[in-house]
Amino acid sequence: MQTEFEFTLPRGFVDGQGQVHRHGRMRLATAVDEIEAVEHPQVQAKESYLPVILLSRVVTQLGALPEITPQTIAGLFASDLSHLQDLYLRLNSSEPITIGVVCPYCNHELQLQVAPLG
Question: Which structural domain, as residue segments, surrounds residue 98?
Fold first, then answer.
């Protein structure tokens, strides 16, 4: 069973030296990941911080960074955070996920069902 999946961020994390890190790996979440993320003090203080804590637990690699911390995830561009949140849902959901998309040719809005990856 595959438990880790590679990804490429749309923009990439820019570290303190200006290096961009786009390629990484995310593992499947465990029950403990979700429980401890919900109980994390920063999440208790501000619920909207949950994705940052949760993703910092399941992203196992991002470019050449030595570790992935909540500060790393919080420093991502919004499009990269959204990309990782979508990947997390696809990896950890047993049900197909419906997303809204816009056709790049005719601008028609439609609902698209994507299968879970895990």
Answer: 4-114
